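Quarterly update from the structural biology core.
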Amino acid sequence: VMGFETGGTYDPGQYNIGKDGTKESGSGAVGLIQFTPATLKEWGVTSEQAANMTRMEQLKLVRKHLKRWTQPGDDFRDVYMSVFYPWALGKSSDTVLFEKGTKLTGKKYSQNEGLDLNGDGKITKEEASNKIKDYLLP
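Predicted structure, tokenized:
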């Protein structure tokens, strides 16, 4: 998951990059598992502080996050969902996470449009998880 989320760099300072190739147009997420600013704020850490951590320092936050959302025996789909979209934990693989043009999830759809494997304007849990599977098993 960390390899996928950092584009293979495992860089704790890796920001989510938007369509124009800049962090300013991205989601604001940063780090080994792309922590959102809201999650970091809960822990009293700013995005800038997280970006300047060493891998070992940030791994403590990764562990804290995974302990919060996952349980022993979870498969890679739910481990990834704990990072990508915790709401989807335990939901079926055909659950729609984001849909193009909707008020509720349209922005998240555009930020993750590359995960819409069949181009139907919807990103399902399975589609998002398949990207991880493809990364793990090239």
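The radius of gyration is 15 Å.
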